[in-house]
Amino acid sequence: MSAEPDGPEDRLRRFATIWSRALYPVTATSLTRPEFESQLLPLARQLRQDLAERVFRAADCEAVGAALVATHCTEPEALSRTLDVVDAYLVLYCGEEAEPDEAGRAGGVGEREELRARCSRIQHAVAAGFARALRERTRAEQEAISRAALEARGTVAEALHASEARFRAVFHGAAIGIGIADLEGTVLEVNDALIRMFGGLEHQLRGRNVAEWTHPDDSPHVWKLYEELVRGDREHYRVEKAFYRPDGTVLWTNLTVSLLRDADGVPQYQLALMEDTTERRLLNLRLRYEATHDALTGLPNRTLFFERLEKALAAGESARFGLCYLDLDGFKTVNDSLGHAAGDRLLVEVADRLQSCATAPGEMVARLGGDEFVALTTGPDTEHEVDELAGRIMHALSTPIRVEGRELTVRGSIGIVEGPAAERGAAEVLRSADITMYRAKHAGGNRYELADPEADARAITRHGLTTALPVALERGEFFIEYQPLVHLGDGSVRGAEALVRWLHPQHGVISPDRFIPLAEHTGLIVPLGRWVLEESVRQARTWEAVTGADQAGLPLRVNVNLSPCQLTHPGLVSDTVEILERAGLAPGALCLEVTESALIGADDDLLKPLRRLAEMGVDIALDDFGTGYSNLANLRRLPVSVLKLDRAFTQGMQHFPADPVDLKIVEGIVSLAHSLDLAVTVEGVETGAQADQLRELGCDTAQGWYYARPGPPDRLHELALADAT
Amino acid sequence: MERPDWAPPGIDITVPSVARMYDHYLGGSHNFEVDREAARKAMEFMPGLPKIMQANRAFMRRAVRFSVDEGITQFLDIGSGIPTFGNVHEVARRAHEGARVVYVDHDPVAVAHSRAVLEGNDQAAAAYADLRKPRDILGSSEVKALLDLDRPVALLLVAILHFVEDAYDPYAAVAELRDALAPGSLIAVTHASYEGIPVPQEQADGTVGVYRDIRTPLIMRSRLEIARFFEGYDMVEPGLVPMPHWRADTELAEEDPWSFSGFAGVGRKR
């Protein structure tokens, strides 16, 4: 829109431009200055009209002031500048149009005065309008922002409410117990889980003081940590703690306590999280009990006993201990004859009785396994106490035990070890007690023995050998030496006695005297004897093959010892037959030696296998003849073909002249033997004089150092060959 | 203990709000004495703060008009503050009848007031969310209801990024928003800087101190640092410039010297 230069419209625009330039710097509008000017233009037009109106209309002027506020001219400076602009330029730019006619303009001082006055009134009205509008706007905006603040608070409060509801749900629904207390320890809040843990009564918890919940099992640091936390020196701690429930039962918990601080970091509350571990703990205790107690008798087991023993041994320099190691005598028989159930009932009763023997503080009884029990005492005077304890145990066992309607007499052997702690380890102590117990058992049982180091050492070897025997056979630690049997008539080698030896990896060669009894005791004698028989038979067959058939039909024989155990073994005959057959050796080349004592009082049952062997052609020799109760009358019924005179008879002939009594006895025996068609072999021939004597007395065969010591099979072969040539 | 996300902060009108201080700078009365008190303190060091705010408003107005000229009629105004006059929806609606606007602010009072102002307006809405959590913004019911993110949007970040400390990684937030926008979308940014302020930096620091004291630190960034917000965007002419220089529609001589403080720019997503 263009205006005529210096025409009324152009002058109005120029006024608006001046006005906008004055106002623009003090407005906050985002309009550009020209845009802003265009907003002022209608207001300028209104002012021009107000100036020209015959009747002054204040309301119109006030509307201009209000419009200024509406265009965001809210600074007081905007009003001031507006009034300045109106005052200086309104009449100047818009006064002419306001004049009623041209004439008035010429003579215009009066008119001008009037215009000035009108302008003044316009300013007053604009100011009033501006002020009123600004007041209204300010009020409205203040109201709006306050309402918004309230609204927002409401929203926030709602959200907080929702959030608190959620927190409450978490708090009360949590499976873990939660409690909040102030720093004095007063409990302020507890959740449902915590209430349940404590037995279900809220009032028993809320308002109580945390410090009241002491428990004898509290470790000292539990309350030290608590103090540190409420002092603000610690942020949290975690302990295992027990509580008494109101009903007196115990609640075990994993307790985590945290310090809650406010926004400025000042400690405010303590938060406790509790997990009920009572059942888990009971389960653990139960598992621990099961792991440390014998299921059958309920007594502490080997594990627990070792723990206690180790503790006792670690008790310090001055402490002493006493230990009884009990093994029931003949328990195996009970088990074998009455069955395991009866055996178990017997053990339970024994356990009960033992338990009642060790009731003093520091005393305990445990079952190590099988029928082995131990009793431990750690009292002040163990030397005396352990004796008493052993006495009580023996006494407790003395009353027969009734099992399945039978009165069983139970006896036991006890090994006692007593001494200062800290000298030996648990295993060593127990071994000593075990050995001592065996000593008591070997001494006949039903007694107790006190450990002594020497006996221990002997027993340890014995014990060691016993345990090493089975392995020794597997590992081939046994070997056989052969001692020649020489015909006294012509000095020829007729055979040899097989003698078993043990080459122990540590102890070297061990003689049969030491291990045969052990083997008999453990039953290993059966497989060992069988092995010896096999080896010897195989050896005899080898000799036979080497010397050949040209030896005038007299093969080298082999003598093998049979132990009493083997005699009763049902497989004796069949085993022997099988071994001979497998080796291809004639039964006549084998002689089995049986001790006289093994056959004393032998009945037909026992003799039957020997008879069968004899019928097959196997020679049976009666070993060590003359040492036992030699029942000469009995000789007739025995299936023996050889008598081996014990070395006791030959000892008297070692020197010249020989003891005449010995001579007479041997002569008599030889005569008797020959009359029964028995050959006589003498052992222990060590001198030529002996050999001569015995030859004269009519003995058939001899063996002894005079001829040869026991040695490897090859040497015998050499001897035999030498003899043959 | 960290306050959970779903628990809103409390409203404490005894603490100054930058949104209400902004309103005060612009001559409004949507503010309380605490706000005015803080604003007066800030103005002791930088008396031209109102002019800077005015320049921000003017830039935004031009940027909105530019966007509409570019065919964009969806606006996401983050950090919208208290609606006073010349608001985006007014400017946009005047330029295009169907323009849709979502205002976002994390000041609950500003949001409440915006909602009151927008009552009955089905083309504009205010969302309560925080620039530091773009996912909240993008997932808000207002954005979902009003904006079609498959089509270009004008993202307005006017006088907001300088209130996000590096610790909250404003660059990552801006990048996340960018990634959610369709190619061709625009981003309009103004940012405070020591560059262009007509007083020595030491003096301007007084103002920075005031904002720090009210726990809304004002982060002055260099032009280069501000330019990094446009990663993934092509700068629209004339680039990142003092606010009055951006597509000015008046003579620069008429501009107040303070309005040249800081930078403004518009970018177009590739």
TrEMBL record, chain A:
Top-level taxon: Bacteria
Matches recorded under CDD domains: EAL, GGDEF, PAS
Signal peptide range in chain numbering: none
Database matches in PROSITE patterns: EAL (PS50883), GGDEF (PS50887), PAC (PS50113), PAS (PS50112)
InterPro entries: Biofilm_reg_signaling, EAL_dom, EAL_sf, GGDEF_dom, Nucleotide_cyclase, PAC, PAS, PAS-assoc_C
Native species: Streptomyces lasiicapitis
Limits of the EAL domain: 462-724
All residue ranges annotated as the PAS domain in the record: 163-233
Name under which the protein is recorded: GGDEF domain-containing protein
Domain PAC: start-end pairs: 237-289
Start and end residues of each GGDEF domain: 319-453
TrEMBL record, chain B:
Record InterPro entries: SAM-dependent_MTases_sf, SAM_dep_MeTrfase_SAV2177_type
One Pfam family cited in the UniProt record for this chain: Methyltransf_19
Name of protein: SAM-dependent methyltransferase
